Amino acid sequence: MFTANATIKNQTGLHARPAAQLVALCKKFSSNIQITDASGKKFDPKSIIGVLSAGISQGADVQVTAEGDDENEAVRQIVSFINDLAE
User: Fold this and answer.
1) Euclidean distance between CA atoms 40 and 23, whole angstroms
2) N-terminal to C-terminal alpha carbon distance within the chain
3) Which structural domains are found in the chain, ordered by start?
4) Of 15, 44, 48, 57, which one is the catalytic site residue?
5) Cα separation of 4 and 74, whole Å?
6) Which positions ≥6 away from 23 have C-beta within 8 Å?
7) Residue among 3, 70, 73, 72 at smallest CA distance from 34
8) What are 3-46's pLDDT values in tens digits?
9) Which DSSP helix (H) or strand (E) runs through 16?
10) In terms of pTM, does the model score above 0.90?
11) Does 15 participate in catalysis according to the annotation?
């Protein structure tokens, strides 16, 4: 299991377009991936419904966790995507 933290910097948070991009990125990995917000709410980033219903807004700190063969690379790329997200 590998875990890292990220902060949503995008003014509109994880709305439809970045949420779809995040889901597409996560689906490239075979690892089980989970994102946890500051309140402890967990969601599956391979599900567009899960991402959108999480309501992650600007300034939110999240924890990305992956478990599987490509867990390190998955977490690294997802954290990079979230930290670099700006629209």
Assistant:
1) 20
2) 31
3) 2-84 (3.30.1340.10)
4) 15
5) 11
6) 45, 46, 47, 48, 51
7) 3
8) 999 999 989 899 999 999 999 999 999 999 999 999 999 999 99
9) helix 16-26
10) yes
11) yes
